[in-house]
Design a protein that fits this description.
The structure holds 2 protein chains of 2 kinds. By secondary structure, chain A is of the alpha/beta class. Chain A has 2 domains: 119 residues, 3-Layer(aba) Sandwich (Rossmann fold); 96 residues, Arc Repressor Mutant, subunit A. Helix content of chain A is 41%, strand content 22%. In chain A, the strands form 3 sheets. Chain A has a 5-stranded parallel sheet, sandwiched between helices. A 4-stranded antiparallel sheet of chain A has the order 6-7-8-9, with no helix packed on it. In chain A, strand 4, helix 4 and strand 5 form a beta-alpha-beta unit. Chain A is globular. Chain B has 4 domains: 240 residues, P-loop containing nucleotide triphosphate hydrolases (Rossmann fold), CATH 3.40.50; 130 residues, HUPs (Rossmann fold), CATH 3.40.50.620; 107 residues, no CATH class; 150 residues, 2-Layer Sandwich (Heat Shock Protein 90). In chain B, 51% of the residues lie in helices and 15% in strands. Chain B contains 29 helices and 24 strands. In chain B, a hairpin with a 2-residue loop joins strand 4 and strand 5. In chain B, helix 14 crosses helix 16 and helix 18 packs antiparallel against helix 19. The N terminus of chain B is likely disordered. Chains A and B meet through helix 8 and strand 11 of A and helix 26, strand 18, helix 27 and helix 28 of B.
């Protein structure tokens, strides 16, 4: 970890869970500030300027989407949402309000930490471009728009590159179908998810080692997609 | 207590219920007098002052002061409700304000003149036509009422009083009000004193009534009225004493109550008979029945007479009689038969109208009863002068009177004569008689009684004139022809009469059949209907049709407030029903509106729909022709309709209650299974978590290293298991409560399967999955997370119930408008028994298996697939193992 320790704001009304999160994060060298209400969370977000906010959707004083919209009014800090399963509607609302990703309760420690890392990486990366994607044996160069597979070059259409770019910009995090369509096609195609699905299917066939069991380009049912490339530092 | 003195439980129960009802109801006290001017109001006010002085909260609702100084003086110091001003034809009258009284709700309220009639057409419109109805409502509202009454206003004494005084009272009250009053105080004043008061101007008599009053306030009248008042009050005391002893003990339970029967004919004496019957019944403390026989003769009477018959039956009902309508060709036979059936030995009939030789030819019902009814006591009541004055009943239905028929009758005679003239040279004159008889028969068949009689007479004359020697004169040479003429005439008349009577009977039967058919048709449709809305629709349709108008059925919400129906109105629906009138009807269980005594100015009539002892709704009818609905015959029919509809509602609500009870029982049993299952499946992992947690937390144990990790892992695994179980239970509950709304979107199956495989990645390590999804598979419009869960649950199920290494295969094929998905495993196969069982809640394939899970996974799958409009099934896989198959529509499931 870097010497400049990241500051994480945890907005969670359950004290126990708050404590667990604090222990978990501090043991991984993050600094933690916590708030038990949305109101408090807003104040802490303004005063401490955290590097990441973890926020529960079921707060006593305001709903998660409102809190996220409020934070987005003054900050682009990555926001990770905690929510129960089967609450797809709420998750999508939160993501559309500006949250970056979500973790389903109950979560495991490694899962949460992975999401935290991915979110923080996005901030770190936001200035520079991340031209190379490593998907197992396949390497995609987004700048040069070339893809190298196990058996030589793989051809991707410009639109497929655009979809991939969009996912790669938020690698490791969820991208809702709405966001994806808007960014890859433009706002006029808004609402047609069938086209998107067929592009994802072709992308999987071109990039995934086993397209019927996607590993890198994963569907979050009912919400969107997540691209999780292998983390490699060196060049291929 | 000896056997003979045992209490009759039914009588006791009735007494208890009576007491309970009485406790809630206000008490009624009546100050009764023989006539106006005896000082009832004065006595009532004095009593009120005394009660007031003793600290009672007593309020004067309305007292007619008639400008008497004494009365006004007594009113001073008593709280008085302001009267309401009723405008009527440009005049203003001060009347009792019922709503103000109900609002003030004093413990005791004084309202003068029980027999007073409200101005029904006044503005604002009074609720009831009669003050006694106002007072009933006050009593129902728990308010004690004191009121005054003159004896001549009692319904059952009405004709007696008219007989005594020659003045008929229009304002009457039902006897039951008087009989059921809690207290009656007789204000007695000797006639001489009353006359003196009258002379002194202390009795109020309006100018208009002055002439009548002159006739009324005469000593013999007053003496007779006083006697009547004393006797009626004494009878009441007597009845109360009997009721008391009856409640104490029934000493002769085997002795049935006395019962007698009053036979009324459709004539003007019927009303008198009913009143006499009431007096008999009171005097004998007997049950009484008023019976009317629908004979062919009845149908020959005009509509007015028929309606009067029904009105008389109504009167009898209001006086407490049981009314019965019989039918038969002979009133006497029907009555005798009925009396035998009901074990009645005493019959009261009216005075026969026919006298002298006509009585010998056609004996009266009374005479026939005496002859036929062995063992019957027949009492004949003499006709009162007063009733004899009333108009004679109209004869013969005007429809059948037509001069053209008489011309036709004459023509028939002419034709007969022509035929006879042709036959004359060849036949004996006696044979020509046959031709004339044939003509008379045809006339009877085609033309009715009157014209047929004409034919009969003309035939005889023509026969005499043309064919009996000396011909072309009316003289008769041979006297034996006189016999021929007589027989000819009698036979023709008898035929005419017989045919007419047969036709009339057919018409009676026809009318009754139509009524029965209308009712039967509705009853049959109602019987096939369970749902309230549909019952209302059927009822509205039939009632509107039968009474040619508009109708609506209003049912209450759970709070007992009537609402306009929400269902789409039928063309026959009445949309302008007055909810406030309907609410009154619903609350009081009594009819109101058009044609009734309550709110008669309303445009529609409102009938309560009673089922059992409850009022379940209100039927409102607005006829196109008001007059038609007001006919008593129609009223009776409408009430019968309302009764049928009420019963249908009662049936529906009983069915609902039974259904609710069944559902409640099922829910209860499900809840128990759920609790048992959850408490087991939750407690087990909780025990593990608590155990592991406490071990980790205990500093003395100082667990570390591998053991520490093992404990922590246990906690995580068990917590996840619990979480899964809870979400399954919640999910299922959401489905069952209908809370789940599908978020449909076009999805490809491979994406859904892939997502599920990703979720189950760790669990599937020992179970290789083969996927065979054709590229050409159409997209399905589904809720992605839910279908993913179906795959996950099915896969999880395979993993749990098959040994490691078992292969799982997922395949799909397009079918007509759907996609069929198959999940196969090569495991041990289905447990014995009905595979459908697997989809039930809390079912595990094998009892007591260790497989874990609360048996909710497959029920959730079924709920999800069903919500998408598909079906899921479990069958043995050909070649061993289990096959789960489900279908998903490719078309929009909600379209």
């Amino acid at each position: 970890m870097t010497t400049a320790m990241f500051l994480v704001l945890v907005v969670e009304d359950d004290g126990e869970l708050c404590g667990v999160l604090r222990t978990l994060l501090e043991s991984h060298s993050y600094r933690v500030v916590d708030a038990t209400t949305g109101e408090r969370g807003l104040i802490e977000a303004r005063s401490h300027r955290p590097d990441l906010i973890i926020c529960d959707l079921g707060l006593p004083d305001m709903d998660g989407a409102t809190l996220i919209r409020n934070i987005r009014g003054f900050s682009t800090v990555p926001i990770l949402v905690l929510s129960a399963r089967t609450m797809e509607g709420e998750k999508i609302q939160a993501l559309d309000a500006g949250a970056d990703d979500y973790v389903t309760k109950p979560f495991s420690a490694p899962e949460l930490l992975a999401r935290v890392r991915a979110s923080l990486r996005r901030t770190a990366r936001s200035g520079e471009s991340q031209p190379l994607l490593y998907l197992g044996p396949v390497t995609v160069d987004l700048t040069a728009r070339t893809t190298q597979g196990q058996e030589g070059a793989v051809h991707l259409t410009p639109l497929e590159y655009r979809v991939l770019e969009c996912l790669a910009r938020r690698a490791g995090m969820i991208v809702t179908q709405k966001q994806l369509i808007r960014e890859a096609w433009g706002p006029e195609r808004f609402g047609d998810t069938r086209g998107l699905r067929s592009y994802i299917k072709t992308l999987r066939q071109k990039l995934e080692p086993d397209p019927s069991r996607p590993r890198y380009l994963v569907t979050e049912a009912g919400i969107g997609y997540r691209l999780s490339p292998d983390e490699r530092t060196g060049a291929a | 207590m000896t056997e003979s003195e045992r209490r009759d439980p039914d009588a006791l129960l009735a007494a208890v219920q009576r007491d309970a009802a009485r406790a809630r109801r206000g008490r009624l006290k009546i100050f009764i007098g023989a006539s106006a001017g005896v000082g009832k109001t004065y006595a009532m006010l004095e009593a009120a002052r005394a009660a007031r002085a003793a600290g009672a909260d007593i309020v004067v609702g309305y007292v007619e002061p008639h400008g008497r100084v004494e009365t006004e003086k007594l009113l001073e110091g008593l709280e008085q409700l302001p009267p309401v001003d009723i405008r009527y034809r440009g005049m203003t009258r001060r009347e009792f304000d019922l709503d103000a009284a109900l609002k003030r709700r004093p413990p005791t309220l004084l309202v003068d003149e029980l027999a007073h009639s409200n101005i029904v057409e006044g503005e604002p419109r009074p609720r009831h036509a009669k003050r006694w109805q106002d007072i009933e409502e006050l009593l129902d509202g728990g308010i004690n009422v004191w009121t005054t009454l003159n004896i001549q206003h009692l319904e059952s004494l009405n004709d007696l009083v008219a007989g005594i005084t020659g003045v008929r009272q229009q304002e009457t009250i039902p006897d039951r009000i008087f009989d059921e009053a809690d207290e009656v105080e007789l204000i007695d004043l000797p006639p001489d004193d009353l006359l003196e008061r009258l002379k002194a101007g202390k009795v109020y008599v309006s100018d208009k009534a002055m002439t009548a009053a002159d006739r009324f306030f005469r000593r013999p009248n007053l003496t007779a009225l006083r006697e009547l008042a004393l006797r009626r009050t004494a009878d009441r005391v007597d009845a109360a004493a009997r009721a008391y002893s009856g409640e104490e003990r029934i000493s002769q339970p085997w002795l049935a109550r006395d019962r007698f029967l009053i036979a009324i004919a459709p004539n003007d004496q019927a009303e008198q008979l009913v009143r006499v019957g009431k007096r008999f019944a009171d005097a004998l403390d007997a049950e009484w029945l008023v019976v009317s026989v629908e004979t062919p003769a009845l149908l020959r009477l005009g509509e007015r007479a028929r309606n009067r018959r029904i009105a008389t039956l109504r009167l009898a009902e209001s006086l407490g009689a049981q009314t019965v309508t019989l039918d038969g060709s002979s009133a006497a036979a029907a009555l005798a038969e009925y009396a035998r059936l009901r074990n009645i030995t005493r019959i009261v009939v009216g005075e026969p109208r026919r006298r002298g030789w006509r009585a010998l030819l056609a004996p009266s019902t009374a005479a026939k009863l005496v002859r036929q009814g062995q063992g019957l006591d027949v009492s004949i009541i003499a006709r009162r002068d007063e009733s004899r004055r009333v108009e004679m009943p109209e004869r013969s239905n005007p429809r059948t009177v037509s001069w053209r028929r008489y011309w036709a009758a004459a023509l028939i005679s002419l034709l007969c004569t022509g035929v006879a003239a042709l036959m004359y040279p060849y036949f004996e004159p006696t044979n020509l008689v046959m031709v004339y008889l044939l003509g008379a028969t045809i006339a009877a068949l085609r033309l009715g009684r009157g014209p047929a009689s004409l034919t009969a007479v003309v035939n005889v004359l023509a026969f005499d004139f043309f064919f009996v020697p000396p011909r072309l004169t009316f003289a008769v040479a041979d006297l034996q022809y006189v016999v021929t003429f007589a027989v000819m005439l009698v036979v023709a008349l008898v035929i005419a009469s017989l045919v007419a009577s047969v036709r009339a009977q057919t018409r009676v039967a026809g009318a009754r059949e139509r009524r029965t058919a209308l009712l039967y048709e509705m009853s049959r449709e109602l019987a096939a209907t369970r749902q309230r809305d549909n019952i209302a629709r059927v009822a509205v349709k039939h009632v509107a049709e039968t009474f040619s108008g508009h109708a609506v059925v209003l049912v209450p919400d759970p709070a007992g407030r009537l609402l306009h129906p929400r269902a789409k109105p039928l063309p026959e629906s009445l949309r302008s029903a007055d909810l406030s009138v309907a609410q009154w009807v619903f609350d009081h269980g009594r009819p109101a509106g058009l044609g009734t005594d309550t709110l008669p100015a309303a445009a529609a009539q409102y009938q309560p729909l009673r089922g059992g002892s409850r009022t379940l709704g209100v039927l409102a009818v607005r006829p196109t022709q008001r007059r038609r609905l007001l006919l008593p015959e129609q009223q009776h029919l409408l009430e019968t309709f309302a009764g049928q509809i009420g019963l249908a509602f009662e049936r529906a609500s009983q069915a609902d209650e039974a259904q609710a009870a069944l559902v409640a029982a099922e829910t209860e049993s499900l809840r128990n299974t759920l609790l048992a299952s959850i408490s087991h499946d939750l407690r087990t992992p909780l025990a593990a978590i608590a155990g592991a947690g406490s071990a980790l937390a205990d500093p003395e144990l100082a667990i570390d290293g591998a053991a520490r990790i093992r404990l922590a892992t246990t906690i995580e695994t068990k917590a996840r298991e619990m979480s899964k179980l809870i979400s399954n239970v919640l999910e299922l509950m959401r489905f069952e409560s209908g809370e789940v709304r599908l978020r449909l979107d076009w999805q490809t199956l491979d994406d859904l399967v892939g997502t599920a495989l990703g979720q189950l990645h760790d669990r599937l390590t020992d179970h290789p999955v083969d996927i065979d999804l054709p590229d050409a598979l159409p997209a399905v419009r589904v809720d992605a997370p839910l279908i993913t869960q179906v795959f996950a649950n099915l896969l999880d199920n395979c993993v749990r119930h098959t040994p490691p290494g078992t292969r799982i295969a997922i395949s799909a094929s397009a079918e007509d408008r759907s996609v069929r998905v198959v999940v196969d495993d090569t495991g041990p196969g289905l447990p014995p028994g009905d595979p459908e069982r697997l989809f039930k809640k809390f079912q595990r394939g094998r009892e007591e298996s260790n497989a874990g899970g609360a048996g909710l996974g497959l029920s959730i799958c079924r709920a999800i697939i069903a919500a998408h409009g598909g079906a899921i099934s479990a069958t043995p896989r050909p070649g061993g193992g289990t096959r789960f198959a489900f279908t998903l529509p490719t078309a929009d499931p909600e379209a």
